[in-house]
Design goal:
N-acetyltransferase domain-containing protein, 32% strand, alpha+beta, 168 residues, transferase, Acyl_CoA_acyltransferase, Aminopeptidase, 5 helices, repressor, GNAT_dom
Length: 168
C-alpha cells in the first residue's frame, strides 16, 4: 500500500461525506457497520487517507462456509470431503468516488486476504458477494472464480491470493 493510506478497524471515525456512488454501500457504512461490528457479524476495515484522516474506502470481513458442491470440480479435488468449506467473506467493499481508478480496491482485497490468512481459524478461501456486474468483473480481474451455484458469488483460495500478493 502506498504511504499516505492506512487500514484500521472502524471505531469513532467520522463517516460524514463518504460517497462511493452506491447509496446502499454509503448507507451501510454510515448506519449499520457499527451495529454489525458490535454484534460480531462482521468487522469493518477502513482505508484512511493519512494526511486528512478521511475515510476513502472500506470493506467488511466475516467468517462463514460454502458448500463443497458449489466449488468448481477442479477446486474440489484434494479437499476434505466435509459438506462445508471454511471461508472469510468480504460482504462489502467500497472506494470513495474521488479515489476510484487508483488501484485502492485491490489494496483492500489484498489486505483482506492477508488478514484472513493470518487468522487463527481455518480459512480455505476468501468469498465475495458482488453487488453488480461491474463488481463481478473487478473480482475476476483479481483472479476470483465464480461459484457454480451463483454467478454473483466469487471466491479465491487463500493460497492463490497469497501468491498474487507476493508477486506484487
Amino acid at each position: 500500500m502506498t504511504a499516505p493510506y492506512r487500514v484500521e478497524i472502524l471505531g469513532k471515525h467520522s463517516r460524514d461525506g463518504f460517497d462511493c456512488g452506491n447509496e446502499a454501500l454509503n448507507e451501510y457504512l454510515c448506519r449499520r457497520a457499527n451495529q454489525d461490528q458490535r454484534k460480531r457479524f462482521a468487522v469493518c476495515y477502513l482505508l484512511i487517507e493519512a494526511t486528512t484522516d478521511q475515510i476513502v474506502g472500506y470493506y467488511t470481513l466475516s467468517s462463514g462456509g460454502v458448500s463443497l458442491a458449489d466449488l468448481p470440480p477442479q477446486r474440489q479435488k484434494g479437499l476434505p470431503r466435509y459438506p462445508s468449506v471454511p471461508i472469510a467473506r468480504i460482504g462489502r467493499l467500497a472506494i470513495a468516488k474521488s479515489e476510484q481508478e487508483r488501484g485502492l480496491g485491490g489494496v483492500l482485497l489484498f489486505d483482506a486476504i492477508k488478514r484472513a490468512s493470518a487468522s487463527s481459524m481455518g480459512v480455505y478461501a476468501v468469498l465475495v458477494d458482488a453487488i453488480d456486474e461491474q463488481a463481478v468483473r473487478f473480482y475476476q480481474h483479481h483472479s476470483f472464480e465464480v461459484l457454480e451455484s451463483n454467478p454473483r458469488i466469487l471466491f479465491l483460495p487463500i493460497a492463490d491470493g497469497l501468491k498474487r500478493i507476493t508477486k506484487s
